[in-house]
User: Fold these one by one.
Assistant:
Number 1:
Amino acid sequence: MFIFNLIILFFCGLLNPALAQDYSNFCPIKVVYPRTGSVIEASSTFLVGQTDIGAKLTCNNEIVLVNKAGFFAHVVPLHYGSNHFLLANSEKSDNVDLTILRKAPPKPIGADELKLEDLKPNQNLGVTAGDIINFSARATPHSTVTVQLGPHSLRLTAIQKNHQAPNVDVAYGKTFRRFDTNDSECYKGSYRVTADDHFFSTHPQFKLISSVGGLSENSRATISTVESLFVARTAKNPTVVRLGPGLARTTPLVDGVKVIIDGWSGDNMRCLYATNHHVWINKSELVMESLTQTTTLPSDLNMRKYNTDIIAPQAVAQTINIIEDSYGEKICLPLTERLPYQIEQKLNPNCLILKVYGVAPDTDWITSEPKTGNESKSNLDHVSWRQSEDNIYEITAYLTGRRQWGYNAYYDGTNLCLGIKERPNISSTGSLNGIKICVDPGHGGNEKGSIGCSGLPESQVNLEIASKVKTCLESMGATVVMTRISQNENPSLSERVRIATDNKADFLISIHNNALPDGRDPWKEHGTSSYWYHPQSIELANYLKNSVKMAGNFLDLGTRYQNLALARGPAMPSVLLEIGFMINPDEFTQLIDPQVQSKIAQAIAEGLKTYLTASEHATTKTDDVTQQSP
């Protein structure tokens, strides 16, 4: 029976050589996820695996749906503690026993208990007048909880409906709770720092008074008032810049940019761009301006011994120069030192907005050189400037057409440059001659990605499809750069983006296949989706997703914004494709079929060609999208 089924799979094209090798260790029932003994927090999971073609499989006497290739996925509920599952083939004596543990929620707070690990703030803070410090604790219900901060005593309020419980997670854009909690155990309160406050490595003291007694605990975190400002320089290129400590990204900075530090949260330093404009940078990516012998900030975050008079970074903008280069055109703002900046991209109207902080205007000139290249490839219409707020100098680059093809920002000495990529060579015949595409097969090496129903890793499926994409694109005349060409390679995410940038690719397409977190249903949630980060990539993401969806007859999961490294590079339109789901038996059957792989690869190439040949001046359904670009 097994040999017959194996032969059938080969002739039906359901196996590639790698999968055939996987079948050499075939057993009548093979569960690839989850492994017995796994600990799962969700209220359900799914058993994914492989069995004989035509097998009648049950799980705890419930029928398991097995597809025509012998792949299965079966959702099972989980109760707290140990869960036992027996998978059985009614036609054979082979069975599989699985034991899965569901993690129990935190134990209820006892009668006279403060959870030290749950006291917040739980990271050292540097604060200034006007800052709000949020306190919270898990403690005995129906008690009195106070916080002593220096001379101030603050009573915390019991939260009966804690919709922001710490066990709230997000998966595929939807929030869910890992486990139930006793909301009445949570106490919260806030304190606003005043100019009269002077804290120095002060530990907030939490006090509990309950019906059976009382106790107190000092928080592990300290709070210090920042008595003076500090100037630091960015030490890396790129330096990651965030909008909150460890939170969303905004425009990264190059090295050598001066920033003012006026607070911190743990290792995240709060940088003052302008009044009421803060960002956060990890201290490992900064060096103190006065301590050139070091590469990072001192471990003493209070830095009181470095309290010296500072000179706030500033410059005057006198002229704006527009210059042609090999990338396209660049807008140069001559400055006297490297100042922080942010970039916004808009599609309606089509423009790039460069905000530079610490700049005063005295701009009398916007100059451009006579064009020496192919003027039809120019993407820049005109440039304007304004002072949007005190110390915020704003340059707007208005672009032609409705598309953008990439941009970059960098310093040439102390001259800030915004590069605007020229249009690629677009042929009216559909040829991709002169177009360079970077194709990225996701994962690789020890990073397997998601695991398919047979145990085949996503990284291998990605590589097989990406290699076929390369062949299809080259047959249309394109030049293709691969981020990896073997299963053993695993370039870092930043290396993959750098490969595309260094090779001056016109487009970056990252090939992936999907999976689900526990608590979801692989039979209900599956299909094709594409992901963008910069608005310039939305239209291409739509074309690619639609083309793949039709080629594989997959469900449409949409085109979505997501903070993904392979989509974040702004130098060219970049799209990450999730072609199908490795844990959906029917889609996995298609994804490992060489004929379907070729069909999908051709669809990706055709989607890019259709995008290029579509009129750039045609109307688009894309709404006005503004994105602070990282």
Number 2:
Amino acid sequence: MQLRGITAAMAPGVAIELARPVDEIQSVLGGLGIVLLIVTGTGVAMGAGLGWLVSGRALRPVTAFTGETEALADAGDLSQRLPEGGDDEIGRLARVFNATLDQLEASAEAQRRLVADASHELRTPLASLRANVEVLQQPDTIPPDEHAALLRDVVQQTDELGALVSDIAHAGERAQAMEEIQDVRLDEIVQASIERTRRLSPGIVVVASLSDTVVDGVPERLARLVANLLDNAVKWNPQGKPIEVHLHDRMLSVRDHGRGFSDKDLPHIFDRFYRSTAARGMPGSGLGLSIVRQVADMHGATVTAANAPDGGALTTVLFPPLSPGEDDGPAEHREV
């Protein structure tokens, strides 16, 4: 038996000692230990169960979202979309995922159209070139003057085919390839393009009024934009009439004095491979103005096409202001 005692002095040489068993105390403590053990075990079990239930409920949408994305990826169908649900994080993630799928689907569709249109456009010149080459393989069956004419046609068709391939390559470029953005003197690019046009088309008169203009962009692509605008104007401009080029207040305009755009064609002028009825008998691929719009979009510019009040086609490109901290500098106007 365990005892708990106390000793106290009563007088010199005399002391009293009292003792009491501790069994009652140990019995109470033992009972409290059992109760504490039961309560602790029950709390741990209930916490684990509630944690499992809560985590399972919280992760159920994530598991469902993972399964849906895996099924979509296995299907390989970009037209399918995920259910967006509510305004929680899973719903937001689904909306972002669907927006990405929209962009992927649009990009894949654009690539399919490009391949289909390119194959269609290449088929006719290749067939014509093959026919001329087959005729040239039998030089004894055609007169010398026709033989020379066929050779000239072959050279011309080869040049047109090369231009078409170049146009297709530029039309397939991605807007994300703007890796060489810099300050560009747009007026100098326009002036160089005008000189090129005068050199390649001696009978064409180009009248220009240019202001010093600096834009953010890629020089090579801006040069292609201007060259395509001028090439389109040269194609339609009648002999004896000038092509008018203006660059003021960050707006570039190119105007010819041809027949202008018909009401039916005007909404489709910048569509890829679109050619009006009048243009189908002329050289070209229908990509020139499409590339103009693509380059303009890449530079944050706005391109429009309209008919001039007194006749002819008028195409304008409005460039955005420079980035903060940059300045055009003093503007100078000049006629070229």
